[in-house]
Amino acid sequence: MRAVRTATFYLMLLVSTVILGVAAIVIVLLTRRQDWAHLCGRLWGNLNLWAAGVKVQLQGVENIEPGTTYILAANHQGWFDIFAILGKIPVQFRWLAKEELFRIPLFGHAMRSIGYIPIDRADRRKALESLATAAEQVRRGTSIVIFPEGTRSLDGVLQNFKKGGILLAIRSQQPILPISISGSHKILPKKGTIMIRPGTIRMTIGKPIPTRQLTVKDRDLLMERLREAIRMHLLKEEGGGSTTRDRGL
């Protein structure tokens, strides 16, 4: 049964990426409406969750203030975090994503068309330029999603945070919306298997963390506050330690 579910998911992933990727590109070319193209991403997320037999329990939607621009910050347990955030978070947003994803044929072009922002973590200068671009978008009213850990966890346990997303929040002076994702690691671990294990992802939206009047000097305190806000809604075995370190961009 898992083999059938796995085959169904990867087939859906391929077909939905091609069809909805093309649709997003065409929508932007014809209408210049990135918000409409974002709906293709939302459908893409929900279709792949359905194909994998994954359900999402979402809590804390009341913490989202309509019309407010946010830095949405989530822990990163696995691939399915992306599907869950896209499919279930009721906010118009763009991704700050690693540059390698933008090199994928069609998929990368669709991401650029929708307005997602690449970040090259291997090049500090380019990374800082990307953060400046993202901060300007946020100040203009576009919410951005970040993974403060920088990459997926190997074992589902919360990792230390990198400073890039925190600097973005401080530069934008917009609130951070913490999102705790629990259970997605079990569906498709980062290493060891390509087999899908259907299950439930629990996603909790915490209370916004204000950043107005904060400066770079407040970076470490804000980083720790965000990490604790995410950690408090994870299972004990997912939460990791209570301290965080500066790990660069």
From TrEMBL:
One of its GO terms (molecular function) is 1-acylglycerol-3-phosphate O-acyltransferase activity. The chain crosses the membrane at residues 7-30. Its EC number is 2.3.1.51. It catalyses: a 1-acyl-sn-glycero-3-phosphate + an acyl-CoA = a 1,2-diacyl-sn-glycero-3-phosphate + CoA. Keywords: Acyltransferase, Lipid biosynthesis, Lipid metabolism, Membrane, Phospholipid biosynthesis, Phospholipid metabolism, Transferase, Transmembrane, Transmembrane helix. The keyword Membrane applies. One of its GO terms (cellular component) is membrane. InterPro entries: AGP_acyltrans (IPR004552), Plipid/glycerol_acylTrfase (IPR002123). Residues 70-184 form the Phospholipid/glycerol acyltransferase domain. SMART domains: PlsC. The keyword Protein biosynthesis does not apply. Pathway: Lipid metabolism; Phospholipid metabolism; CDP-diacylglycerol biosynthesis; CDP-diacylglycerol from sn-glycerol 3-phosphate: step 2/3. One of its GO terms (biological process) is CDP-diacylglycerol biosynthetic process. Belongs to the 1-acyl-sn-glycerol-3-phosphate acyltransferase family. NCBIfam families: AGP_acyltrn. The HXXXXD motif is essential for acyltransferase activity and may constitute the binding site for the phosphate moiety of the glycerol-3-phosphate. PANTHER family: 1-ACYL-SN-GLYCEROL-3-PHOSPHATE ACYLTRANSFERASE, PHOSPHOLIPID_GLYCEROL ACYLTRANSFERASE DOMAIN-CONTAINING PROTEIN. This is 1-acyl-sn-glycerol-3-phosphate acyltransferase. It comes from Desulfoglaeba alkanexedens ALDC.
